[in-house]
Design goal:
Blueprint (H helix, E strand, L loop, with lengths): L2 H30 L1 H4 L5 H6 L1 H25 L4 H17 L15 H21 L12 H13 L1 H15 L6 H8 L3 H25 L1 H7 L18 H18 L3 H19 L16 H8 L16 H6 L23 H10 L8
Bound molecules: zinc ion (ZN) (2 copies).
């Protein structure tokens, strides 16, 4: 193995080991304090499949050691490899500590959700982006730490966020509910309901999204999502909390009024969590007909471009048909050249991004 390749592999193995080690220790905390740190609704599921989740944890600990050792063998700098191995050892030691039962808490963190999603999405999308990359860019590109913090808040805070998302519909639209009509809606086949959810929630989110672009003070919130200059699976997590809450609660209103079945809602939530990651990913696949039926990276990358031709285009999240209908669709034969905001670049730090909309005195379009 030549020297450059050795350093490259060693470095990647070391960083992977360190990150996996952190995930293992966080997972151990979930096992230790399940009532406080684990999503309450998911607890019975974990308990019923305890052996599976313990198996995943052991496999991840083994990967932490393996990548740590590879890094130690290949690199002169022992920092990352050692860190991974130390974290892996801590995780093993924590395995032998009994869990602390504190009784059901009113609000629990979704640390389990953060750890599992990061592990699964990372294992799927990082190799996918290496194999089918659209652009040559680093896994740990500029801003990844900030995006990871956004990812952490939206996942660990899932219980509070979901509650806040459902609140406005319950508070303001309960009058619009017709039990008989809801029965008819919920009696349809699940796949049909699933498509209807995508269609109606996307119609609302199209206009909310468009407002976030065209009303200057709203843009200051949404500019955070557009501030990434490189697109990848993690870049989509960069969303101001106000932006996420307003968009999600508004798109939940038609779902709430129409009253779809539980199974269709679960399918929708599962689909959204992967689809949102996929459309930001650094992958080059294009789908000849499908690209006009469902949003793909090609469609959403054009939304994120700072190239003149793509500004304020492709507002739909799922169904490009809304952009076609309202005259904002843009999907030429080539890919966009660059991404990001046009005039002002929001700060790079997580807290700076949270404060950004409240700090800016002079609102400008494309801020
Ligand atoms: Zn946007
Ligand atoms: Zn986006």
């Amino acid at each position: 193995m030549n020297r450059r390749l050795r350093i490259d592999v060693g470095k990647r193995a070391g960083v992977t080991s360190g990150l996996l080690g952190v995930l293992c220790v966080l997972a151990e905390f979930c096992f230790l304090f399940p009532d406080l740190l684990v999503t309450r609704d998911a607890l019975p599921f974990y308990k019923a499949n305890l052996a599976v989740f313990k198996g995943i944890l052991w496999a991840t600990i083994a990967m932490t050691f393996l990548t740590g050792l590879i890094s130690l063998a290949l690199m002169r700098s022992k920092v990352h490899g050692t860190l991974g191995i130390v974290l892996g050892t801590i995780a093993v030691l924590m395995r032998f500590t009994d869990s602390v039962e504190t009784g059901p808490a009113t609000v629990s963190a979704g640390l389990d959700y953060f750890v599992l999603e990061l592990l699964v999405l990372g294992l799927v999308f990082i190799p996918l982006e290496r194999m089918f990359k659209l652009r040559e860019q680093k896994i740990f590109r500029k801003g990844w730490q900030t995006d990871l913090k956004h990812f952490f808040v939206s996942h660990a805070g899932i219980q509070v966020l979901s509650f806040a998302t459902l609140l406005p519909a319950n508070a303001f639209f309960a009058w619009a509910i017709d039990a008989n009509f809801q029965k008819v809606v919920a009696a349809q086949p699940v796949w049909l309901q699933f498509l209807e959810i995508l269609l109606v929630s996307d119609l609302v989110s199209y206009w909310v999204h468009r407002a976030f672009h065209q009303v200057p003070w709203l843009w200051n919130f949404h500019a955070i999502h557009h501030s990434s200059q490189e697109m990848d699976w993690l870049a989509g997590s960069r969303i101001h909390i106000v932006d996420a809450l307003v968009t999600r609660s508004a798109s939940f209103v038609p779902i709430f009024i129409l009253g779809f079945s539980q199974a269709a809602l679960v399918a929708y939530v599962a689909f959204v969590s992967v689809h949102a990651v996929y459309i930001h990913s650094n992958t080059r696949w294009r789908f000849p007909v499908l690209r006009w039926l469902i949003a793909t990276p090609e469609f959403h990358h054009w939304h994120h471009t700072s190239d003149e031709e793509g500004i304020d285009k492709n507002f739909a999240v799922f169904m490009p048909v809304w952009d076609k209908l309202f005259g904002t669709a843009h999907m030429p034969a080539h890919w966009p050249k660059k991404y990001g905001t046009v005039k002002f670049q929001p700060p790079e730090s997580y807290l700076g991004q949270l404060a950004y909309p409240f700090r800016r005195k002079r609102a400008t379009p494309y801020g």
